[in-house]
Amino acid sequence: MGLRWGLLWLLGAAASCLLEGSLGSSPRVSRVSYSSATEACPGLPSFTAEGYMDDQLIIRYESHTRKIHPRVDWVNTLVKEDFRFFNKYMWILKNDEEYFQEDVPMLQRRYNQSGGFHIVQLMVFCEVGEDGKKSGRWQYGYDGRHFLGYEMATGIWTAVDKEAQEMKRRVETAANRRFTDYVESICTEWLQKNDHYRSETSLREVPPVVTMSSRTEADGMERHVCRIYGFYPRGIDASWTRDGEFWLQDTFHESLAPNSDGTYYYSLGIQIDPKERGRYRCHVEHDGLQQPLDLDLKVPESSSSLGLIIGVSVAGVILLCAISGILAFLRFRRGQDDPRKGPSRRAPLMPSCSETI
Q: What residue ranges are annotated as transmembrane (predicted)?
């Protein structure tokens, strides 16, 4: 197998545990993903490596730049204060790029594939529970399907076919040892370093900003979306209420997601009969708020401003026609009154757009 496992697990420690941070008492989950393709596509270089923490992209390495690009502010601080450390793992990524890219033609040969687009992907997971217990797993995929995997908690390998079984036999002993060392030792070391930088830039109870957007649907119903963003910590209680009571019918929610500055955003929507608009509220509770927020629903702009839009449009058409008519009339009169000019062969009733301008 072309990939150097030692470098991979070391990179996993750097990019995963480097990117770990504390989000209250919930387990900390990080992952590193590699991808290597037979050819570059728009938005997909031939090789990429990405580090995530709780589904937030933290760093990205791309083959065409051969650099690690920070995606959050606190990693930029780390680069400035400990560039040797950061540069060390950029060097590791450059080496892993070379060896990981060898896996694509190797698997093509195993599957007797002579051409076409093919991609190899690897994801390494590391989780630290509330009790400090660590666990991990990795998943290796080819052309979008699971190929080979390992679960540290059970020690179980999964291989989908004989090609994967053969690769498992080649890497099993070394991978088990190095992956265990990565989770038990290296990850802990990087968590300590990461906690230092994260604590310097961490946010403390930033209250959410709550806005409401509304629109009228084709069937006459109204759709309202309550947008909640810029808050920290991530724990938040947001829901719809009807007459002051929790309401779930005809509602929809988006996943809680992180912003690049370390804060979070969330949104929830509801579809209602416009006659009952006054009965509903968007209810938000967060540690950064002194008291809960209850936001009223707005009158959809489409219904309130439709008459104004139509009126402005009609007035604009009338004004344009009047101006065009005056210009045409003056041009026609000027041609009649000028004795040096003969009679016009064609008197246009309306000038062209370019002439009017």
A: 306-330
Rg from Cα positions in the chain: 31
- pTM for the model stands at 0.57
CA distance 21 to 197: 9
Q: What is the DSSP string of 274-327?
A: GGGGGGEEEEEE-TT-SS-EEEEPPPPHHHHHHHHHHHHHHHHHHHHHHHHHHH
Which two structure tokens, joined as six digits, stand for 152? 């540290």
Q: Which residues pair with 139 in a beta bridge?
A: 123, 149
Query: Comparing C-alpha atoms, which of 191, 198, 261 is closest to residue 15?
Result: 191
- Tell me the CB-side half-sphere exposure of residue 27, using CA atoms within 13 A: 12
**d(C-alpha 144, C-alpha 260), whole Å:** 28
Alpha-carbon distance of 48 to 55, in angstroms, equals 17
Return d(Cα 160, Cα 67) in angstroms, integer.
Answer: 34
Is residue 33 within 8 A of residue 203, CB to CB? The reply is no
Give the span between the Cα atoms of 73 and 128, in whole angstroms: 23
Residues 6+ apart with CB under 8 A from 201: 73, 74, 77, 262
Residues 156-195 have pLDDT tens digits of 899 999 989 988 887 787 777 767 766 776 666 666 666 6
Token pair 């007035």: residue:
315
Which tens digit of pLDDT belongs to each residue from 295-330?
Answer: 999 898 754 444 444 444 444 544 554 455 444 444
Of 317, 313, 283, give the one whose Cα is nearest residue 297.
Answer: 283
Residue in the block written with tokens 């370390």: 262
By DSSP bridging, strand 222-231 and strand 245-247 are unpaired
193: amino acid identity, one letter: K
Element spanning 282, H or E: strand 280-285
